[in-house]
Amino acid sequence: MSDKYQEKDQSKFLKNLSRTRTNKAIRHLFSDVVLEKKDLIYPLFVYEDLLQPEDLSALFGQKKQTQSSILKEIESCLEMGISSFLLFIVPSKKSEQHFDYQFDEKIFKSIKNAFGDNIILFADVCLCSQTSHGHCGLLDESRKKIDNHQSVLELTKKALLYAESGVDVISPSDMMDNRISSIRESLDKHHFDDTLIMSYSTKFASNFYGPFRNVAQSTPSFGDRKSYQIDYRHQKDAINASLRDKQQKADILMVKPALSYLDIIYRLKTNKELENTPIAAYQVSGEYQGLKVMADAGLIDFHEGLLETLYSIKRAKADFIITYAAKELSAKGML
User: CB–CB of 279/255 below 8 Å?
Assistant: First the structure.
């Protein structure tokens, strides 16, 4: 077959691509990106000082959960086919140095006692909602900067307690240097070899965290987090942070936020040094809530917008997606 004929034949084929878009069933048949419920991790917030669940005005469709309501919420999600949950604990008291994790322990134990291996329980490990200043680590008061070493020690202590309470996947979101190696060493030393670590390895200093900080009561009282989160101009820093955390034995790496950093997700997933390493992506509060704001203005369809963004994250090759849309789309039968 001549090259000229091949070019002509190929051109004829390309002119008739619309046949694969004729109707919903045919479009589904030819789709090559798969999104399943098992790919989704649903974030939940539990408040220590709350007696009744309350709506979260900053996050459409989400609620503040109590010690008892969290069990009902997880049960309803399981009925919809959602089985992975990332929990954030919002304590009633804040401190500078000394933290009480009794409530956290009680919550995790009650969840695992109720659902066992029917769920995968991820737990965020950070200090931002516990510290009076709202930063993710402990402060060196003399210099008004994060004390990385002391922060890592506290995060390691917290991670071990979470593992002892039944958490399946420890999820450090603080971005302190070398906390992954410290946590892994502590878990292994105390015979929690099977407890996974999902590192927020590539967490950018983003403008899209506002609703979450309102919900988690973790807005910094001074300064910002740019000295320990990644600058959005630094793609090499983002890759190196994930490579380091993989070397320190993180089981899952995560990019946060997702939509502004699809290129980073793809770069990590196709990096030879990270071959076979699961990559998660967090569709953060601002990305989720921004779609709701546009929908309320009549500019987009909220649920179709959510679905489109989730497929874009899967198209970038993320293995798992942390999203507030998991229950919303499942309830609509769209997953």
Answer: yes
Number of Cβ within a 10 Å radius of residue 22 = 10
Residue 19's pLDDT is 86
Burial 240-256 (b: 16+ CB within 10 A, else e): ebbbbbbebebbbbbbb
Catalytic residue among 63, 64, 158, 203: 203
Average pLDDT value for the chain: 90
pLDDT in tens, 156-195: 999 999 999 999 999 999 888 999 999 999 999 999 999 9
Q: Are 275 and 317 in contact (CB under 8 A)?
A: no
Query: 3-state SS string over the chain?
Result: CCHHHHHHHHHHHHCCHHHHHCCHHHHHHHCCCCCCHHHEEEEEEEECCCCCCEECCCCCCCEEECCCHHHHHHHHHHHCCCCEEEEEEECCCCECCCCCCHHHHHHHHHHHHHHHHHCEEEEEECCCCCECCCCCCCEECCCCEECHHHHHHHHHHHHHHHHHCCCCEEEECCCCCCHHHHHHHHHHHCCCCCCEEEEEEEEECCCCCHHHHHHHCCCCCCCCCCCCCECCCCHHHHHHHHHHHHHCCCCEEEEECCHHHHHHHHHHHCCHHHCCCCEEEEECHHHHHHHHHHHHCCCCCHHHHHHHHHHHHHHCCCCEEEECHHHHHHHCCCC
- Distance in angstroms (rounded) separating the CA atoms of residues 53 and 115: 20
272 catalytic? Reply is no
Q: Which of 188-197, 203-212, 276-285 has the lowest mean pLDDT?
A: 203-212
Q: Which of 158, 256, 292, 327 is catalytic?
A: 256
Q: 112 an active-site residue? A: no
What confidence category does residue 5 fall into, taking pLDDT thresholds of 50, 70 and 90?
very low
pLDDT tens-place string over residues 132-155? 676 777 878 766 788 889 999 999
Distance, CA of 278 to CA of 326 (rounded, Å)? 19
